[in-house]
Amino acid sequence: MSSNPSQSTALTSVKPIKRWLWVVLSAVVGLLLLLLLFDWNWLRKPLERYVSKETQREFRISDLDVDLGWNPTVKMKDVFFANVDWAVSGAPMAQIGALEFSVSLRGLWDGKLLVPRVALSRADLVFERSTDKRRNWVLRPPAETTEPGRFRIASLSIDQGRARYFDHGEPMFVDVLASTFDPGVTAIVKDAKAEPENRRYTTRYVYKGHYHQAGFSGEALTGDVLSFQQSGTLFPIKASLNAGTTRAEAEGTVADVLDISAIDVQLHIAGSTLASLYPFLLLPLPASPPYDFRGHLVQKGDRYAIDDLRGKIGVTDMAGSGAYLRKAPRPLLTAKLTSRLLNIADLGPIIGIQTKDTGTRTAVGAAGAASSARPQQADTNTRAQAQAKEKQTAGDKILPTGTTAARGDGILPAGRFEGGRLKAIDAEVDYVAAKVQAPNAVAVEDMKFSFRLNGGVAKLVPLEFGYAGGRIVSDITIDARQDTLRSVFNVDFRNIQLARLFPALPAMAKGAGAIGAQIRLSGSGNSIADTAGNANGSVTAAIANGRISNLIDAFSGLNGGKIIPLFVGGDKDIALNCGAVSFAVKDGIGHSQLLVIDTAQTRIDGTGTISFKDERIDLTLEPKPKRPGILSLRTPVHVFGSFRNPDYSLEKGPLLLRAGAAIALAVVNPLAALIPLIETGPGQDTDCARLLAPVQGARQQAGASTRAQRKSSTPAKGG
Predict the structure, then answer these.
(1) Has residue 7 got a pLDDT over 80?
(2) Is the dihedral of CA 526, 531, 534, 537 positive or negative?
(3) For the residues 257-286, what does the mean pLDDT come to?
């Protein structure tokens, strides 16, 4: 009986399939047996030789093991990895008791070496970055260590480890000691058990170092694992930092400790002066009284924002918000701040004004930046250092007369501004102070300003003060694009009330009328005093239709016949018809072009100079009474001296002539001695319209606010 041909063909085809399946099954079983019996240490020496050859650095391990999976885990013991040849530290890059890390196979497919997790135990690590931006942690031949690396670590955990980071370009050094602990044992970390939320902290880091030659130290508590690089994964943190007299505390969450990509923390920072922060933030903050601030800090990408900011500088309270944006070519700082009360003694050091509380005059950068500080010292711009710096940089100036006057005796702010800092950042800052606390002799009421800094050019538009019932409105530009700053000051005094101008003088408080003034000056210098010392421009002032104390008017004419009745019968007000002052300023010296004050009883004419170079006054005032009187010693008055300590004297010629005549006639007849002291009243009424014409701009400032107030007080039509 013959067999079926189709059945025979089927049996023939099944045999190769069975053989193929047997081969595959045998291979799988063999592979499994190989994996089960494989000792990864067989690859240890080839791996050491490969890594050493590729990096040109010695690499050694005592044990190697691998757990396979979608993200294989590599385990090594007693790891030694030498440093690069250019390293300055002299220590190996890594000595690790136990190292465990996983590798993403998907990352390898994309041409990147992504390490989702690294765990270290008993580790001593050294990271270095050279001045030419080479990095010792880039695992490539030395010639390629400045190129962007493809090596990424997502998370890191450390037990009993030390890490040191040297950045020779910044310069910066950090030394960190890490240790894990049981959060339930308070003996290890003093507050780890106090609150339930602290139980999430399991690792303690103690660090110290210096940045831009400013020393710092601190502690941090975190969880088991840190997100390390380009992961975006937040981890809990509670940290403190001390840098000289500066202390900062933060609690919240942070992502990627190597290159921080996100922050959400409650921040508390306090210190003796804001200028101490410059080495760390590279912000041109001023020397200031002690400060204390709290706020909510959030970072998203390159933007750092702080909300709910509140605190004090000195006794000045501040609240608001701010942001810092890292961008090219310069970072941008923005802030909106308000104060219920601004103490002028706290503001003074910012622009170099000496106050009773500070005892010196300082300004932005007055201590000469952090480059001169020792690594252990973070207060690189204290008020004491600013005073020493001022003595070095200001010195004595040679006056035109050949005498000298120390700048330390002046009232113009002499604290030096560092132009380099103004070129390092852009800024947009708005500030409003509802009330200003000033010395009794200063009638400042409130303040606001808008500060804009772009490309080394700073503008205060406006810088505005409430002053003596009126306003002082300034438009100030400071150009720091060259070594010596160039400044332009446009200042308007609007509707300044004579009665409130000198609150410490009761006689002036009886006055009335509004004063207007305009200052138009430009000059160069790295302090306000230096700029004023070579400034060009004009100073004008005007007053009209006011009233002043009759006693002041009588004293101005040295008219004893009027003064005695006023003391006996009381002071009275008299009309102040008008006044005009105009100085043309050239190379820091103002020459009077017009100086006239006209009252109902006296006209005072003046001439002279005001020098901003040495801060001195030299004026001659000649009173001309308009009415007859007796016991008059009418004679020109010489006003002279420094801005801080002005003085006056009487012109001796006319005074001696009248006094001598009175004495001579007294020999003949005592009553005849009064004849030389009789005032015939030669003064004439002034044409105020003509007098005020040259200072019309200042005159408008005296009346502009008054008209605006009357207009604003008129009810709007239609409800």
Answers:
(1) no
(2) positive
(3) 79
Contact 352, 414 (CB under 8 A): yes
Tokens at residue 90, please? 């002299």
Greater model confidence, 546 or 144: 546
Q: Supply φ then ψ for residue 644, to 5 degrees.
A: -75, -35
Instruction: List, in order, residues 6 or more apart from 253 with CB less than 8 Å away.
Output: 234, 235, 236, 237, 262, 263, 264, 265
CA angle 527/530/533 to nearest 5° reads 150
What percent of the chain is modeled with pLDDT above 90? 28
CA 420 to each of CA 425, 484, 503: distance values in angstroms, whole numbers, following the listed order: 10, 10, 41
Torsion of CA 369, 373, 378, 381, to 10 degrees: -40
Dihedral over Cα of 671, 674, 680, 681: its sign = negative
Of 528, 526, 525, 439, the C-alpha closest to 491 is 528
Tokens matching residue 196: 């339930």
Cα angle 275-279-281, degrees, rounded to a multiple of 5: 85
238 Cα distance to chain centroid: 26
- Provide the token pair at 679: 């005032």
Whose tokens are 């040495």? That residue is 614
Which is it for strands 94-102 and 118-129: parallel, antiparallel or unpaired?
Answer: antiparallel
For 123-181, the three-class secondary structure string (H helix, E strand, C coil) is: EEEEEEECCCCCECCCCCCHHHCCCCCCEEECEEEEEEEEEEEEECCCCEEEEEEEEEC
Question: What is the bridge-based pairing of β-strands 203-211 and 172-180?
Answer: antiparallel
Cα–Cα distance for residue pair 214/375, rounded to 1 Å: 5
Task: Give the pLDDT of residue 515.
Answer: 85
Tokens of 652: 């001796």
Check residues 589 and 286 and name the one with the higher pLDDT. Answer: 589
pLDDT grade for 507, boundaries at 50, 70 and 90 = low
Structure tokens at 271: 């210190």
Task: Using CB atoms within 10 Å of the CB of residue 179, give its burial: 0 to 12 exposed, 13 to 18 middle, 19+ buried.
Answer: middle
> In the numeric block, which tokens belong to residue 298?
């959030």
Whole-angstrom CA distances from 412 to 160, 403, 631 are 58, 19, 41
Residues 691, 78: Cα–Cα separation, whole Å: 94
Integer Rg of the chain from CA: 40
**Contact (CB, 8 A) for 652 and 662:** no
Which are the contacts of 77, defined by CB distance < 8 A and separation ≥ 6? 61, 62, 63, 97, 98, 99
CA distance 417 to 318: 24
According to the model, what pLDDT value does residue 440 have? 61
Q: How far apart are CA 56 and CA 50, in angstroms?
A: 10
Distance of CA 10 to the CA centre of its chain: 90
Average pLDDT over residues 221-243: 85
Q: Is 66 helix (H, G, I), strand (E, B) or coil?
A: strand
Q: In 3D, which of 271, 338, 245, 262 has the Cα closest to residue 297?
A: 262
Rounded CA-CA distance 652/636 in Å is 9
Question: What is the spatial distance between Cα 23 and Cα 16, in angstroms, rounded to a whole number?
Answer: 10
- Return the structure tokens found at 1: 């009986």
Structure letter (DSSP) for residue 360: S
Amino acid letter for position 483: D
Residue pair 310/293 in contact by the 8 Å Cβ criterion? yes
Quick check: 367 and 381 in contact, CB under 8 A? yes
Q: Report how far residue 393's alpha carbon sits from residue 418's, in angstroms, rounded to the nearest whole number.
A: 12
Query: What phi and psi, each to the nearest 5 degrees, are found at residue 340?
Result: -75, -40
Measured CA to CA, the distance from residue 506 to residue 499 in angstroms comes to: 9
β-strands 602-611, 616-625 pairing:
antiparallel
Q: How many residues does the chain have?
A: 719
Strand partners, 95: 80, 124
What digits encode the pLDDT tens for the residues 168-218?
888 889 999 998 877 655 434 444 444 555 567 889 999 999 887 788 999
